[in-house]
Amino acid sequence: MIILAFESTCDETAVAVVEDGRHILTDQIFSQAQLHAVYGGVVPEIASRCHVESISLLAQRAIEAAGITREDIDAVAVSYAPGLIGAVLVGVNFAKATALSLGVPLIPVHHIRGHIAANYLAYPELEPPFLCLAISGGNTILVDVRGYTDMKILGATRDDAAGECFDKTARVLGLPYPGGKPIDQLSQGGDDQRYSFPLAHVAGNPYDMSFSGLKTAVINLVHNAQQKGEEIDRAGLAASFTKAVSDSLVPRTVMAAKELGYDKVVVAGGVAANSRIRADFQKAAEENGFSLYVPPLKLCGDNGAMIGAQGYYEYLAGVRAGSDLNAYATMDL
Question: N or C: which end of the chain has fewer CB within 10 A?
């Protein structure tokens, strides 16, 4: 089954062609990162306009690069929530028009479900059930993946997402947007014990997380040093900050896996590209005897292939949408 998939929830326009939920025929991505870098973050209006300008050309390129014709497309999948509402609307409306013109089913896909499904593309042997930690710029969620479309949230951040903290920390350190990669690079060789940062615990749910205090602590540390004319150990701060994030994520994930009795742990989303977090999860997997699945870097960030992968399993589960499909800024997994 060949699915044409669209992703436009933030600042990447992506169109992919995926076969049977496991094979990428092509994944065309236009990143707007350079356009937003001057502002230090994504400007929703700019993001929406760029999606409008690029999505049609990307769709044509995807079909050509996959070596298929329009008649070969069996269904259209689209990420319809959550995300920047104007940006999501572009992808949803283009996907609706495409499905209508081709006379094929339209499959709505939750963006986070797509991130989880990115691992199906990287690991053909991976099947539910398993535990997944989805970590990105807008979401940090621990998910019990019972089936391809049967999922339950065990815990989530109560405020800021881990990825947002990376971007804010990068900004206060004068690093470019997006902040994940620059902080990763800066932290290499830095002393992760140089600064002490708070680790939040949420009463009532050991799997819930909070990162606003960590973000505030970093900002205050840098601003106080600047006011006093003191020099910041930037590499040490980046390493200490990354350690604090990892120390919030890894132990909770291991604890949940043990409680549920899972021997498979999946990590997904843009923050999964961080080398320290990947290494800490690998170490935890070896120490606790579970199999770890983390997508290659190209599948960590937003992409159309992950939407096509999850779209396949949503299709098998009977999920369909009509011309009344809407976009949503927020939606439960």
Answer: N
